[in-house]
């Protein structure tokens, strides 16, 4: 399961980041790293980009980037 | 081996520029206040705090060689004064955008001619500690005195966040933390007191969170000059291919690159260093947060309720269009009376000068050159101020980022991102502020594509030309519910939008082709903008327009005046005298006044015909004849290249109704205009062609000047001008030829 396929209203934890792409590294600098708790907040017109909440911040990224972040629901194997 | 300068980076500060400093500048420099850099994430409340601290004692300039704005202010105490530098918002010391790179270079003392700051004031939004503390941890490694201002403590309070300040100060190696509410001034006294002693404050203890990296940097210290601080060694290890990495590797000698690579392999393994850095630092941030942040259940605030509502697709979309419609309407409705007032004021002043000064070049220069020139600069101000007021309000309230987010998908279909939407919409009022608003776009290719698409949007200066030609030549019949004139106007707006978007798409597929830029946006909460911050920003933008664009517009207005005024024909002037004295002898009352002004207008038309401008019109007539234009239209179009709205005044003079004639008189003259063989000049295909020419053509010196400034090159403004002129010409040619034959 990745950030691109979250259900609204549930909390998830990032498990693994595919960090080869410099764009993804940039997102990691912004806080999307293993262990970060995220929630899906909204989708823009046309269903893309997506808006996530993370420690009180709202961050939006496109689905193509969101796919590089593997997540599990919070509390599972944590 | 490539030839690379081995001079130490610090030597940049003492380069040739300094040796040219005059004696009194040196004495100023010696007394100059120590500088403190104000650093923080975007939207952390940094600028509001900066304005609170410095008030009106601010200067705005540019960093050398780039278009990034430099804001410097002074903060005074009883026995000291410091220079505060408000840096562009940044998330980390690893730069992503040009603005972030400048901010990094300032705090590391890498800007030529700028001293390393004597201290750092880090601004951290209490509701966004997660990203804020990441930056603070990096700033601690600068080995400079550091002070943290925690902003938005009121917002944090109301959403139930409690911060243990003492625990935070402990975790930050003894750095002082001052909670403030910049909008109300709460906590400001304590913050000012802390700033007063900041340069003498002890440097923060280095955070211990990643032994391997510290050890690796330590290992290189003996082999590097003492001028290279530890933070630069760390950056050299982490940021591959950066300027700092090259410098450090050069210091290490011939095998420098290999040594760095070996250390990287040991510390980071096969992972990208930047990713490993982010994992380690955020690990530390989460630990600190667990200790210092105690969150109570989140209360529902108006901001979060509004955000939740706007997050639903339908209200979000409708809201976006309503906001744009309001902005658009306000720019037109509010600015028009002010613009009319400025224009009639300038016209009155011009008349006053003409009637009170002896006839001749001086009075004409003052009235038609200087007053009209200055008028044509300040006539843009109402629109620019109103538009920027809205943009700043939308930006500071957090809505602008949301609009970019909502529209990203749609803009992607033309190769741009959501961040291009605001510059495009702004350009409907005027391309000048629209192009200035492209600074929010981080990707250079996207930015240039947006800059070149923006002048196609129907700006307010095109509107008078459209209005005149449509009112005169498009029949006011109704088509279903709509008026044909309205449909033509709408069509011209659509033409601008389509041409602009296709241009962007074309450029992105060809000259500006490249890797797809990253789209990531922090979406700030909705909040009420701070009045002082809004006004300070507004003032800054208006001054930039007056200084940069105003000088060009004014110079161009004077040149056009000279072209239309010189050479003067004595014969025409003598004829006018003779006719007027003849009329004065035979006529009286209203008939005399009418005859006098008719003769004057006819003489002005004759003078214009034989002026440089009139001659130019005749020279280029063959080129424009396939478009159905005679020399008069050609001359007016030439005069309009620097500023399209000039066309109306030139047409007024050419058709001998006076430059300030009302539009219905001028329209009647245009309808009656014929070629020497009696055919009407203004046929419907010719008028539609002329309208298309206006819709496409880049007839605006101010826009060219702003493109030159924002792209830092002549290549793009020249390309834009040639491309748009060609497009307009071909469009007008096709319509006229197809419509006539």
Automatic annotation (TrEMBL), chain A:
Species of the source:
uncultured Woeseiaceae bacterium
MF terms in GO? transition metal ion binding
Instruction: Specify the protein name.
Output: Ferrous iron transporter FeoA-like domain-containing protein
Q: Does the keyword Iron apply?
A: yes
Stretches that traverse the bilayer: none
All copies of the Ferrous iron transporter FeoA-like domain together span 1-73
Q: Keywords in alphabetical order, please.
A: Iron
- SMART domains in the record, alphabetically? FeoA (SM00899)
């Amino acid at each position: 399961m990745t950030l691109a396929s979250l259900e609204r209203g549930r909390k998830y934890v990032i498990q693994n980041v595919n960090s080869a792409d410099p764009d993804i590294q940039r997102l990691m600098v912004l806080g999307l790293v293993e262990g970060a708790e995220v929630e899906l907040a909204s989708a823009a017109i046309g269903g893309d980009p997506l808006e996530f909440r993370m420690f009180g911040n709202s961050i939006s990224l496109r689905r193509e980037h969101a796919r590089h972040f593997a997540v599990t629901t919070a509390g599972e194997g944590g | 081996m490539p030839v690379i300068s081995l001079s130490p980076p610090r030597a940049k500060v003492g380069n040739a520029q300094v040796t040219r400093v005059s004696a009194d500048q040196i004495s100023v420099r010696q007394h100059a206040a120590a500088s403190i850099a104000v650093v923080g994430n975007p939207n952390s409340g940094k600028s509001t705090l900066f304005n609170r601290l410095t008030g009106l004692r601010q200067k705005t300039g540019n960093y050398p060689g780039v278009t990034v704005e430099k804001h410097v202010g002074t903060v005074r105490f009883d026995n000291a004064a410091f220079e505060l530098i408000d840096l562009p918002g940044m998330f980390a010391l690893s730069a992503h955008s040009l603005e972030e790179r400048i901010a990094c270079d300032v705090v590391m003392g890498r800007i030529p001619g700028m001293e390393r700051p004597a201290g750092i004031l880090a601004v951290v939004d209490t509701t966004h500690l997660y990203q804020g503390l990441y930056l603070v941890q990096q700033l601690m490694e600068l080995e400079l005195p550091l002070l943290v201002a925690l902003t938005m403590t009121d917002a944090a309070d109301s959403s139930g966040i409690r911060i243990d300040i003492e625990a935070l100060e402990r975790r930050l190696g003894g750095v002082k933390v001052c909670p403030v509410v910049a909008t109300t001034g709460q906590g400001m006294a304590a913050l000012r007191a802390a700033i007063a002693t900041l340069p003498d404050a002890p440097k923060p203890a280095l955070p211990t969170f990643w032994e391997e990296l510290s050890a690796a940097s330590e290992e290189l210290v003996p082999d590097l000059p003492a001028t290279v601080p530890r933070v630069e060694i760390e950056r050299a290890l982490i940021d591959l291919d950066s300027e700092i990495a090259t410098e450090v590797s050069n210091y290490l000698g011939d095998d420098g690159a290999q040594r760095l690579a070996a250390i990287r392999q040991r510390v980071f393994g096969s992972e990208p260093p930047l990713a490993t850095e982010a994992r380690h630092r955020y690990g530390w941030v989460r630990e600190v947060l667990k200790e210092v942040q105690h969150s109570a259940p989140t209360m529902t605030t108006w901001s979060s309720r509004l955000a939740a509502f706007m997050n639903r697709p339908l209200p979000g979309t409708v809201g976006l269009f309503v906001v744009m419609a309001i902005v658009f309407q306000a720019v037109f409705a509010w600015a028009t009376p002010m613009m009319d007032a400025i224009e009639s004021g300038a016209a009155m002043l011009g008349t006053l000068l003409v009637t009170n000064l002896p006839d001749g070049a001086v009075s004409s220069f003052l009235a038609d050159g200087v007053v009209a020139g200055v008028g044509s600069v300040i006539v843009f101000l109402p629109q620019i101020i109103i538009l920027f007021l809205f943009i700043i309000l939308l930006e500071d309230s957090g809505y602008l980022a949301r609009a970019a987010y909502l529209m990203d998908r749609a803009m992607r279909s033309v190769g741009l991102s959501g961040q291009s939407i605001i510059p495009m919409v702004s350009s409907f009022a005027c391309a000048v502020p629209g192009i200035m608003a492209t600074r929010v776009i981080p990707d250079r290719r996207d930015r240039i594509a947006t800059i070149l698409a923006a002048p196609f949007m129907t700006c307010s200066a095109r509107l008078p030309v459209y209005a005149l030609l449509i009112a005169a030549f498009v029949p006011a019949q109704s088509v279903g519910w709509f008026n044909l004139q309205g449909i033509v106007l709408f069509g011209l707006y659509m033409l601008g939008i389509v041409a602009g978007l296709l241009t962007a798409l074309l450029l992105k597929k060809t000259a500006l082709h490249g890797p797809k830029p990253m789209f990531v946006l922090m979406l700030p909460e909705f909040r009420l903008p701070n009045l002082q911050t809004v006004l300070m920003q507004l003032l800054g933008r208006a001054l930039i327009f007056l200084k940069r664009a105003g000088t060009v517009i004014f110079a161009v207005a004077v040149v056009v005046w000279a072209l239309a005024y010189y050479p003067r024909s004595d014969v025409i002037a003598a004829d006018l005298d003779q006719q007027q004295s003849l009329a004065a002898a035979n006529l009286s009352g209203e008939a005399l006044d009418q005859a006098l002004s008719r003769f004057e207008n006819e003489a002005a038309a004759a003078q214009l015909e034989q002026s440089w401008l009139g001659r130019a019109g005749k020279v280029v007539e063959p080129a424009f004849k396939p478009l159905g234009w005679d020399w008069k239209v050609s001359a007016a179009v030439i005069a309009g290249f620097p500023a399209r709205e000039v066309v109306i005044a030139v047409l007024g003079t050419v058709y001998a109704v006076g430059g300030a004639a009302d539009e219905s008189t001028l329209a009647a003259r245009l309808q009656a205009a014929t070629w020497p063989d009696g055919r009407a000049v203004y046929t419907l295909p010719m008028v539609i062609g002329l309208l298309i020419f206006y819709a496409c053509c880049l007839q605006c010196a101010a826009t060219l000047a702003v493109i030159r400034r924002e792209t830092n090159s002549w290549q793009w403004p020249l390309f834009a001008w040639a491309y748009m002129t060609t497009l307009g010409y071909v469009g007008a040619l096709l319509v006229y030829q197809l419509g006539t034959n």
